[in-house]
Amino acid sequence: MEFSGGGASSGGDHQDVSDSHRRKKRYHRHTAEQIQRLERMFKDCPHPDEKTRNLLSRELGLHPRQIKFWFQNRRTQMKAQHERADNCALRAENDKIRCENIAIREALKNVICPTCGGPPVSEDSFFDEQKLRIENAQLKQELDRVSSIAAKYMGRPIAQLPPMQPIHVSSLDLSMGSFGGPGIPGPSLDLDLLPGSSSSGITDLPFPPMNFSDMDKSIMAEYAAGALDELIRLLQTNEPIWVKPSSDSKEILNLEAYSGLFSRPQNPNLRVEASRDSGVVIINSLALVDMFMDANKFVDLFPTIVSRARTVEVISSGQSGTLLLMYEELQLLSALVPTRQIYFLRFCQQIEPGSWAIVDVSYDIPQQEPHFSSPSKAHRLPSGCLIQDTQNGYSKVTWVEHWEIEDKAQIHHLCRDIIHSGFAFGAERWLASLQRVCERFSLMINGANSAREFGGEGKRSMMKLAQRMVSYFCSSINPSNGQQLNTLSATHDFEVRTTVHRSMEPGQRNGVIISASATIWLPVSPSNVFNFLRDERCRPQWDVLSNQNPVEEIAHIPNGSHSGNCISVLRGYNTSQNNMLILQESCIDSSGSLVVYCPVDLQAIHIAMSGEDPSYIPLLPSGFTIYSDCRPRNDEGASTSSNTNSTSGSLITIVFQILVSSLPSARMSHESVATVNNLISSTVNQIKTSLNITSS
Question: CB neighbours of 355 closer than 8 A, spacing ≥ 6?
Fold first, then answer.
């Protein structure tokens, strides 16, 4: 609306003004005398009635509506001034309280107990005491279990035994080495052990105390909160941020739309990986959140992806959420793909009842980066998942993965497609692995679906044993440290990567162990390769140590809805060493598949089948990992059903582990490397021959 400079126009004149003219506003500036008179009236009466406004309008030569609007604006301005003053006062009081709090904390650090002269008891003394009591109870239970197992092995109570020594089952130093037929010795593995210094074992990455200040923690909290906001927007927004190139393809991130929405410029020197996927998981949200916030449980939840994880420090915990600083190493199960090592913040917050958001975002710690061994630098942009309860007690999980990668070394040509496609560390692989493992946990807990060969407790014990076997297998492919050697195969068509380390962990074969792996490509679909390798009837065709002796399955435990997800106990037709069995687990999902096996003493299998704790049964697993090659599809060949179609291939990693010696001073020799090299080369040739593949 508008008014004339002197206020002479009548109200009727204003009603005759056209609509187009009304849109053009001319703002009136009051004179100093008018403002002074209005200010005096405002002090006496901030809310003048209509009669007072009319008197002022005649006195000042202004329209009554101008008087009305001036008082409205003045009241709004006064309210804003009061609010600003209140905010300043509250902020000053808050700063004062924070300073007092910091001073009190510093003073408490120097307090001396008047009774004992020692440092003061921590605020969580009750919880510390309870934690110690729980640990003591767990240690006592562990001692009882070890005593029970030792008594079964030795044939007399533990009280009559000398100090306990590490348990060794058989002298089977090579997996499947017991399959020599009657009168036919198995392949000789006479490894020459060179005396001298011991091989370097797998050492932990140092985690010195970080000593973060309150300011550092405040910055971390603000950074994590911003990352959570970005993650939620990525989870809940579809187009134009997420697009599908075709109806049957996965969602990909529109980088231009993303950069515009979050004001994040693109770096042409960095490779971006971004993906989103969702699905239902057989677990409730609270249990799943608990597993995510515990580093050890998180590794158990993703054994094929997370090789190591550790909580470095709890930054904050309360009703507003829990913030952790963590370290993890992520892997694709192939020695050709380097691990991704990152420090990151994990922030978990309940969005609404039954709905949780968990965000991971990289957090650089410069003094720790020199310890990283990976040739590529990975930075995790806000990634994570939204976990929502469903009516049937399950959870709907929506997952986002977003990375920026600086490739400092060339990616191996076999793995280039699977890396550049984003599948190797993408959302689909995380979610598929989560669904399969949670389904396995559900079957392990549910004793009603017990296997026919033994009861529910025996089934759970066998599943725990197989789970530990798979975890050892996955961690052996990309060890953190140890003497490493790369050699070509006997036919010079693939690379064998060998690592030696010393194992002293309970539940593993103690001594010096050689882990050797090789990754090959086969023009066969991953499902066909998986079915071939897991079938005990086909085992003599590829197992060079079996001497083509047949194998039978004597126990079968399903651990998933897919028929390929199962645990088997196998026995070879061999009279020379009939006290050895083979424990095998096969698992498959849309992220890939595994076939892992390990020789286990017959008596140890009986212990597990009886429902006792299998934690101290030593394992040295070998096996295979199978992934799709992720090569671009050729539409012209889509109609063919041939398994050797160029549009469908597999990346297969073969892993063998050998106990070189129980002596800690043993080390890897050229003869032992050559033996493992020949073993892998022979296995690869047997597989190609059985699948009718000609070597290129």
Answer: 285, 386, 387, 388, 389
- If you search the block for the tokens 């699948």, which residue do you land on? 691
Phi and psi at 568, nearest 5°, equal: -130, 145
Residue 119 is encoded by which pair of tokens? 């440092």
pTM of the model: 0.68
Closest CA to 624 of 551, 690, 692, 539: 539
Cis check: omega of the bond before 240, within 30 degrees of 0? yes
| Contact in structure between 555 and 453 (CB atoms under 8 Å) | yes
CA angle 260, 240, 420 (to 5 degrees): 85
The set of long-range contacts for 447-452, using a CB threshold of 8 Å and a minimum separation of 24, is 451/555, 451/556, 451/557, 451/558
Task: Please tell me the distance from the alpha carbon of residue 262 to that of residue 265, in angstroms, as a whole number.
Answer: 9
DSSP β-bridge partners for residue 180: none
Asked if residue 586 lies in contact with residue 562, where contact means CB atoms within 8 angstroms, the answer is no
Average pLDDT of the chain to the nearest whole number: 78
Residue 485, number of CB atoms within 10 A of its CB: 15
Residue found under tokens 């429902």: 611
Question: Which CB contacts under 8 angstroms, 24+ apart, belong to 129-136?
Answer: none
Is it the case that residue 380 has pLDDT exceeding 90?
yes
Which phi and psi (to 5°) does residue 235 adopt?
A: -75, -35
Q: Give the pairing type, strands 383-389 and 395-406.
A: antiparallel
| Among the listed residues 613, 603, 566, the one whose alpha carbon sits nearest the alpha carbon of residue 458 | 613
For residues 329 and 583, what is the distance between their CA atoms, to the nearest angstrom? 28
3-state secondary structure of 618: coil
Task: Please report, for residues 57, 65, 248, 452, 630, the alpha-carbon distance to residue 71 in angstroms, rounded to integers and kept in the order given.
Answer: 12, 10, 63, 86, 70
> Strand, helix or coil at 384?
strand
Residues in the chain, overall count:
696
pLDDT per residue over 58-87, tens digit each? 888 888 888 888 899 989 988 888 888 888
Residue located via tokens 């609270």: 286
DSSP symbols for 488-542: E-TTSSSEEEEEEEEE--TTB--EEEEEEEEEEEESS-HHHHHHHHH-TTTHHHH
649 burial via Cβ count (<10 Å: 0-12, 13-18, 19+): buried
What does the alpha-carbon distance between residue 68 and residue 396 come to, in Å, rounded to a whole number?
56
Q: How far apart are CA 387 and CA 357, in angstroms?
A: 6
Q: Which amino acid is at 220?
A: M
628, 542, 536, 630: which is closest to 581 by C-alpha?
536
Each residue's pLDDT tens digit, 460-489? 889 999 999 999 999 888 876 555 666 666
β 511-522/580-589 pair status: unpaired
- CA 28 vs. chain centroid, Å, equals 64
Each residue's pLDDT tens digit, 276-325: 999 999 999 999 999 999 999 999 999 999 999 999 999 998 888 999 99
By the 8 A CB rule, do 411 and 405 touch? no
**How far apart (Å, rounded) are the C-alpha atoms in residues 619 and 251?**
41
Helix residue ranges, H only, 116-158: 125-154
Contact yes or no for 340/630 (Cβ under 8 A) = no
User: To 10 degrees, what angle do helices 64-109 and 50-60 make?
Assistant: 110
Q: How confident is the model at residue 372 (pLDDT cuts 50, 70, 90)?
A: low
Q: Exposed, middle or buried, 610 (CB in 10 Å: 0-12/13-18/19+)?
A: middle
